[in-house]
Amino acid sequence: MRIVLHLDMDAFFAAIEQRDDPRLMGQPVIIGYPGLRGVVATCSYEARHFGVCSAMPSVVARRCCPNAVWIHGHMSRYRDCSRRIFNLLREALPVVEQVSVDEAYAELTGFSPSLGRARDLAEELKEMIYHEEGLTASIGLASCRFLAKIASDLDKPDGLVVIRPKELRPRIHPLSVRKIPGVGPKMAARLQRLGVTTIGQLAAVDEALLRRHFGVSASTFLAARARGEDETPINLVQPQRSISEERTYLEDLVDDERICRELLARAEGVARALRDKELCARCVVLKARDERFHTVTRHHTFDVPTDLSEEIFAAVRELWRKKVDFGGRGVRLLGVGASQLVPRRELPGTLFPDAERERSRKVARATDELRRRFGNAAIRPGRLIDPPGAGGSLLPRREADEEPAGDDSPR
Ligand code: TTP
Ligand code: MG
Questions:
Q1: C-alpha of residue 157 to centroid of ligand 2, in Å
Q2: Active-site residue among 17, 91, 103, 229?
Q3: 114, 285, 322, 350: which is deepest, by most CB within 10 A?
């Protein structure tokens, strides 16, 4: 039988804050900006008892839990901690796939002879992480990827749950179909119209009926999950599809200079994340939302894929100036994304690089290193320094398939 492990840190950002400031232990702690346009990035389990959860508008969270301690967040600290935890995991396990800042899968087939032994190993991992980082993780073990993921969530925080094949019916069937990764709100609503809300009900539905409603590929997917099957492998190196960074502003931006300054900051963050991962982007995306919530995205394709902030910035500034017309309305959100990513070493020309670009890359890498050692505030291009009194801002959720860049605010 296959054995897959899924690990997810508990209340990750909030737990780091509690660990680093003992006064926060046992307190409801919320990571995010408490202002009008803020959202909750995450919160401690104490805050969850009051109904606070990730992505909740801050105004709602404040109503649920008026006594919470709000922390804007220390992204570079979270990222360093994440890096150390993944190093521990990679040392201990043969095949580790990182799926987010605090979440990993590991293939234990052939490494651990039984689910029971895998459980002992998982106990050791949890202890090791607690010993090294003072943080708790929840782990799920099962015969495939999606069951391991569901298992790790069943007894959070500090959980360790093993799902054996015979436990599918009692433990998995009662759960909502929404627990299946890949079943979003739309598919769940369509299933509900067929009278299916739980995984057990999904297992009982005639596959032909599913096929009529969802087509061949979606119905095959649903039927397999209902049987507790998922052949998705655990990937040692996962192809990353995109990296992006966006911000919502407390006050709408109207000044072109300020807008360009923000675009430069986002381009910097994205370029740094690309260099961290040794990737270059063939395509950049500008996302902008005006005060009436009208959102546009504009793309630019490079002849030569890049990981340099000046090239990404030049492209998005051009897109902003030539391809976006908000008719003078203020800008509420700006985002910069990179897609069509290619590993740098696979690019032609790596052997005989362009001298100018190599110089820029060397400077950028040296800056990245200084940032890593001395923190984010250590180095900023002159234009990134906020004038006194500039409105704060915060990052909403990044896209699922990426890690945060070294920004000092939560996603
Ligand atoms: P999660 O693992 O989803 O959440 P968590 O670790 O805080 O809590 P749980 O115990 O339920 O796993 O996400 C990991 C981190 O990613 C989280 O600490 C903060 C960040 N994050 C955001 O910034 N915005 C979001 O919407 C979510 C869901 C997470
Ligand atoms: Mg987590």
A1: 9
A2: 103
A3: 285
User: How many other C-beta atoms lie within 10 A of the C-beta of residue 63?
Assistant: 12
Does residue 288 carry a pLDDT above 80?
yes
Q: What is the pLDDT of residues 169-196, one digit of tens each?
A: 999 999 999 999 999 888 999 999 999 9
- Residues surrounding ion ligand 2 at CB below 5 Å: 8-9, 12, 102
Burial of 377 per CB tally in 10 Å (0-12, 13-18, 19+):
exposed
**355-374 vs 256-276: helix axis angle to the nearest 10?**
90
User: CA–CA separation, 223 vs 199, rounded Å?
Assistant: 10
User: Which ligand has the nearest atom to the CA of 407?
Assistant: 1
Whether the predicted model's global pTM rises above the 0.70 cut: no
Distance CA 194, CA 388 (A): 57
Q: What percent of the chain has pLDDT over 90?
A: 71
Q: Using 50, 70 and 90 to split pLDDT, how confident is the model at 377?
A: low
DSSP codes joined into one string, 170-220:
IIITTSBGGGSTT--HHHHHHHHHTT--BHHHHHHS-HHHHHHHHHHHHHH
Instruction: State in Å: Cα 62 to ligand 2 middle.
Output: 22
Strand, helix or coil for residue 282: strand
Is 127 considered catalytic here? no
- For residue 385, pLDDT over 70 is answered with no
The pLDDT value given to residue 362? 82
Max Cα separation, the chain?
65
Q: How far is CA 56 from CA 30, 69, 178, in A?
A: 11, 16, 19
